[in-house]
Amino acid sequence: MYPTLELLDPLHPLRRRTALWLLPLGALLALVAFAASRAAELDPVDRFLLPFLALGFSLLAIILWRFPRTSSWVLPLAHRSCKELCVRVCV
User: Fold this and answer.
1) What is the pLDDT of residues 24-45, one digit of tens each?
2) What is the pTM assigned to this prediction?
3) Nearest-5° Cα angle at 13, 12 to 19
4) Ramachandran quadrant class, 41 (left: phi over 0; alpha: psi -120 to 50; beta: rest)
5) Is the pLDDT of residue 80 over 60?
6) Residue 49: which residues within 8 A CB-CB, separation 6 or more?
């Protein structure tokens, strides 16, 4: 066991389990937004950004599922990506 300066977070397992549900859902919603954007021909940027976002969410979910110790960097990265998706879809 390696010494650490991080405090143990009692909600950490709950955050990881929640991310394992929400990351695939985010990938699915990014694909839905991609299909809607493509059908309406609204924003050409979405045609390039949303497939990569769906792929990224899928990869983050797989990494988090296979390697639980990666949650220290996967969860913050997923949070930033989710904020970007919300901004792109809502605006």
Assistant:
1) 998 999 899 888 888 887 777 7
2) 0.74
3) 90
4) left
5) yes
6) 88
